[in-house]
């Protein structure tokens, strides 16, 4: 057994899990009128209700013991202090410095990084303003109407998600587009509608060696030059965001048009850095600053609040509770706001690339589950797709519901009618998952309708019973503003961090994506030329041969 699973806190939670058995949340609510107050809190403009969980005050106490045993507070402080907690890459983890709105210095190897952070932010602001105001023009002197961000993973998902989420704040005449997939369709379909004279490309890649991004960037450059003809015009239409100046120059982008960041910014934590340039162009520097401030407010809460009142820590510990003691292998994140339609996709990288690990920080195999699979869609669409399984399937899938109290689009026969319907759905879903519906309730309901015989009623009862006792958190905010979104993202970043610490894994590397990349580069030249016998397994060789015969 590893130190974690043989530890006193782990053993106490295992015992407690047995003691709790089938205790139903319905009964816990009935027994304690103060449950909602006890298990809810507000921080950085977000309200979290976590009362609909399979927990008692004892559960929480034991989970907090686990967090303390794993030294969550110590690791948190080391992260904020710029220590190299990304051990396999010997790097600090300082996305919090990017949104540090205080005058506190943040040191990496004794050097305050804040002046450099502020300098890049100022350049981003100036550039974003120039594009938005039509001062930065294309080579023909026309203002930029379309910005295409070419990046993938962390250099795409964050900016896409945020620009979609903050569309109500977007510039009216500068449209944002995102191309990530190396499938030529993504670039081709995007460029189909664009005018090279008024299109600006942001090539975003931390390493500037990512195959998908460079392939797309080279094709975009060809598309532009087919029209502009002269290489000299590239400077007005291509800028780069990267940590790798040498590769940027090699691609042909002037370093004067490059926005830098640093190795202590992980790709999936980089939307706060220059990777956020498309966001700053879309919503403007002031709103971008509000996004940073919202995240900073959550950072301050996470950094200073005691664990028992610490929103990210509580969310993380609840996740650990279900993952490790209830065998819940997936979680659903369900935003009741159409603007958050890419939120789950963004969180998939944040959570699954961070905590999809199976060795401890010191390289031993884990003997406990780590990160869950994460999925989600905006409500109410999800309700008509996969909620059936969450309500009545055989897997336990803890849910996070997210909703703003007000909408940017208060439409309907009566003002705001749509939003009230939306909210009634989110509250109803959480209630239904928790309460369920007993056989007695189903029987009484069907009998009262008077439409069915007693035999028919009895035949249907088992199908219409909802077990309930299905856990969920509900996160509310007044409005989906840049600040609220910043706080929400930071909440999940810190949640993932705490879980990584509890599980004793490194949440900040991603070696797991390397093997596929390596094999793809071996296969690429063999696709046309064919492969030597025995170079691949029969399946891979067979698929390649089928492709050659059928292309
Ligand atoms: O998927 C692996 C990964 O390294 C991610 O962590 C990263 O966000 C993405 O590739 C893109 O990398 P880059 O920004 O260097 O192009």
From TrEMBL:
It is found in: Cytoplasm. It comes from the Bacteria. Its main location: cytoplasm. The keyword Cytoplasm applies. It is an enzyme of class 5 (isomerase). The active site is at residues 353, 384, 517. Gene3D superfamilies: 1.10.1390.10, Glucose-6-phosphate isomerase like protein, domain 1 (3.40.50.10490). One of its GO terms (cellular component) is cytosol. Pathway: Carbohydrate degradation; glycolysis; D-glyceraldehyde 3-phosphate and glycerone phosphate from D-glucose: step 2/4; Carbohydrate biosynthesis; gluconeogenesis. One of its GO terms (molecular function) is monosaccharide binding. SUPFAM superfamilies: SIS domain. Its EC number is 5.3.1.9. It catalyses: alpha-D-glucose 6-phosphate = beta-D-fructose 6-phosphate. One of its GO terms (biological process) is glucose 6-phosphate metabolic process. Keywords: Cytoplasm, Gluconeogenesis, Glycolysis, Isomerase. Belongs to the GPI family. Catalyzes the reversible isomerization of glucose-6-phosphate to fructose-6-phosphate. This is Glucose-6-phosphate isomerase. It comes from Azospirillum doebereinerae.
């Amino acid at each position: 057994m590893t130190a974690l699973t043989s530890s006193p806190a782990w053993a106490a939670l295992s015992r407690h899990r047995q003691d709790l058995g089938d205790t139903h949340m319905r009964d816990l609510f009935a027994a304690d009128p103060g449950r909602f107050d006890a298990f809810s809190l507000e921080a950085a403009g977000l309200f979290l209700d976590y009362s609909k969980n399979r927990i008692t005050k004892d559960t929480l106490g034991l989970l907090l013991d686990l967090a303390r045993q794993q030294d969550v507070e110590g690791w948190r402080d080391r992260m904020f202090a710029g220590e190299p907690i990304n051990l396999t890459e010997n790097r600090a983890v300082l996305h919090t410095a990017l949104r540090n709105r205080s005058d506190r210095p943040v040191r990496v190897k004794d050097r305050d990084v804040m002046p450099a952070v502020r300098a890049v932010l100022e350049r981003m602001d100036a550039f974003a303003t120039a594009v938005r105001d039509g001062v930065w023009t294309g080579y023909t002197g026309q203002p930029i109407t379309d910005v295409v961000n070419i990046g993938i993973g962390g250099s795409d998902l964050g900016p896409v998600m945020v620009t979609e989420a903050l569309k109500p704040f977007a510039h009216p005449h500068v449209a944002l587009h995102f191309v990530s997939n190396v499938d030529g369709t993504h670039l081709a379909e995007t460029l189909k509608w664009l005018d090279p004279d008024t299109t600006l490309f942001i090539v975003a890649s931390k390493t500037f060696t990512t195959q998908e991004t460079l392939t797309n960037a080279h094709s975009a450059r060809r598309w532009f030059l087919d029209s502009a003809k002269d290489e000299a015009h590239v400077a007005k239409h291509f800028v780069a965001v990267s940590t790798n100046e040498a590769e940027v120059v090699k691609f042909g982008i002037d370093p004067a048009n490059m926005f830098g960041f640093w190795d202590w910014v992980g790709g999936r934590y980089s939307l706060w850095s220059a990777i956020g340039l498309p966001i700053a162009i879309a919503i403007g520097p002031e709103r971008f600053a509000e996004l940073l401030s919202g995240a900073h407010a959550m950072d301050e809460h996470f950094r200073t609040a005691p664990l028992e009142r610490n929103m990210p820590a509580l969310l993380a510990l609840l996740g650990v509770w279900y993952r490790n003691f209830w065998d819940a292998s997936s979680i659903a994140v369900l935003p009741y706001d159409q603007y958050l339609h890419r939120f789950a996709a963004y969180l998939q990288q944040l959570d699954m690339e961070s905590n999809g690990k199976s060795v401890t920080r010191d390289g031993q195999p884990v003997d406990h589950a780590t990160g869950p699979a994460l999925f989600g869609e905006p409500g109410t669409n999800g309700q008509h797709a996969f909620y059936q399984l969450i309500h009545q399937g055989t897997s336990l899938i803890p849910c996070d519901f997210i909703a703003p109290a007000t909408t940017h689009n208060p439409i309907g026969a009566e003002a705001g009618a749509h939003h009230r319907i939306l909210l009634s759905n989110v509250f109803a879903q959480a209630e239904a998952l928790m309460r369920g519906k007993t056989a007695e309730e189903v029987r009484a309901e069907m009998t009262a309708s008077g439409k069915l015989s007693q035999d028919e009623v009895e035949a249907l009862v088992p199908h219409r019973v909802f077990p309930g006792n299905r856990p969920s958190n509900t996160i509310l905010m007044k409005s989906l503003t840049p600040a609220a979104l910043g706080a929400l993202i930071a909440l999940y970043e810190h949640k993932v961090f705490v879980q990584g610490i509890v599980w004793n894994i490194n949440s900040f590397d991603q070696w797991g994506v390397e093997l596929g990349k390596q094999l793809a580069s071996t296969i690429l030249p063999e696709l046309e030329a064919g492969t030597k016998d025995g170079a691949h397994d029969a399946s891979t060789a067979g698929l390649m041969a089928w492709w050659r015969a059928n292309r």
